[in-house]
Amino acid sequence: MKSDTKTQSQSKPGARAEYGSTSTGTMPDYVHARSKRQKQRAAGLHPDYWYPALWDSELAVGEVREIVFWKRSFAIYRGSDGKVRALEDRCAHRQLKLSKGQVEGCLLTCSYHGWKYDEAGKVTKISHSLFGHKMPVVKVDAFPVQVRYGVIWIFPGDAALASERKLPEIPEWDENSGWGKISIDFTWKAHHSIIIDNTCDFTHAYLHREKKPFTHAELTRLESKGDQVELDYDTQVGQGKFSKFLVNRKTTDTNSMTLGYEYPYQWSSTDAKIKHWCFVLPIDERATRTFFLFYFAPEMLRIPGLPFSPPKALLKAIMPIAKRLLVRPLLDEDGVAVEAEQEGYEAHFEQPVPDLNPVVHAFQAVTIRKWEEYLTSRGLPTSLTAPRPLRENETATDAELAASAE
C-alpha cells in the first residue's frame, strides 16, 4: 500500500513556543527529569521488541530506505530475491549512510567507494584496489526483520531475543478471514507516550464531539499485570453522523469497549467485532510514526436498506471509502491534538498536570519501568542520584569516592 504518512504541523521539529512559556531552558532528558511526567516524555521504548519500520509495499525489490528508531538510523533494503534485510546505517569505511547506497543483487553497496555488504553486515567485496593488503575483515551490525500484516518489522535490540519476542497474533488480518481491514499511518510531531495515552484515555471525547467515535465513557475496570494494562469503559461506540447508520446494533454490543497496552503495543476491542492495533516507531523525543490496523467483523456492518450483512466483496470495497471519509478525518483530529500537546509540554514542562484518569498513570508506570529496565541492562544511569554500576573488582565505597572526584 502507499504510505499514508503525514504530519499535522508545519512548524520546525522541536520548535518551542517562546511566547507565554512558563519553563526555562530546554526540556529535560531522562536523567535530568524531575517528575514522572518528565520521565515518561523523555523515555524511549525498549529496543528488545519488534517495531514497525515500513509498509511492505513501500520497499520495492532493489530499493533501500532509511528508518530511524529512537535516534538510531537503519538501512532497510530488499534484495533481488525479494527478501528484506536491515543493517546499521553506516559504512564501516568512511561512515556514510548505507541508505544512500545501491542494492546490487542481495548486497548493499556504499555509494562512495563501492564497499559491498551482505545481510550479516560483512564487507564481502571492495570495488577498488586493495594496494597489496589482504581483504579487511569489516562489518556493521545486522538486525532481524520480518514481514507480517503488510508491515516490515525490525528488531533493533538484542538479536538473540528476536525469536522469543512475539508479535501479536491477528488471525482476522488473514486475506481469507472475511473481515474488513483498514491500514493507515501518520508521522506525528509528538512523543510516543502522548500518542499511546491518546488511544486509551477516553476523557478526550470532547475533541471528537462531532464525529463521536465514543461518548459518555465511564471507566469500569483497570488492571495492571507485568508489562500489560487492560481496561474497560462503559461507553457509546460509533454515534457519529454517518457511523451510527453503519453499525449493526443487533449483532454488535456497542455499549462498552475493552482496551489494552501490551508494551509496546496498544489495542482495542468492541464486542470482539470492531478491533484495532496501534504500533509505534519512536523516532526521537519529538516524532513518532504510528501504524494503525483496524478490522471489522462482517456481521457488525449494516448497509441501510440492505436486509443482510454485506458479502465479502462488498465489505472489501467499502473499506477504502470508510478510511477516507471516517477513519482518516477522525485520526487527523487526534494528530492535531497530540502535536499541540507536545508543543505545550515543551513550553511548560515544569508545570504539574492534574490528570484525573488512572489509565494515564498506569500507562506511565509501565513506560517508565521498561525504559529504566533497558537503561539498567546497559549500565546506564536512570537519574542524577542513581549510583552507577560497579566496575570490575570495585567496592561500593570505591565507587562513591570515584563519583565524588568526577
In words, what does this structure look like?
The protein is an alpha+beta fold. The protein folds into 2 domains: 1-9 and 19-49 and 171-406, Naphthalene 1,2-dioxygenase Alpha Subunit, Chain A, domain 1 (Alpha-Beta Complex), CATH 3.90.380.10; 57-161, 3-layer Sandwich (Rieske Iron-sulfur Protein). It is built from 5 helices and 18 strands. The chain has a 7-stranded antiparallel β-sheet with strand order 12-18-17-16-15-14-13. Strands 2-3-4-9 form a 4-stranded antiparallel β-sheet, with no helix packed on it. The chain has a 4-stranded antiparallel β-sheet with strand order 5-6-7-8, with no helix packed on it. Helix 2 (192-200) runs antiparallel to helix 4 (358-377). The model is unreliable at 7-19 and 396-406 (pLDDT under 50).
Question: Descriptors for this entry?
Answer:
406 residues, alpha+beta, Naphthalene 1,2-dioxygenase Alpha Subunit, Chain A, domain 1, Rieske Iron-sulfur Protein, 2 domains, seven-stranded antiparallel beta sheet, four-stranded antiparallel beta sheet, 5 helices, 18 strands, 20% helix, disordered C terminus
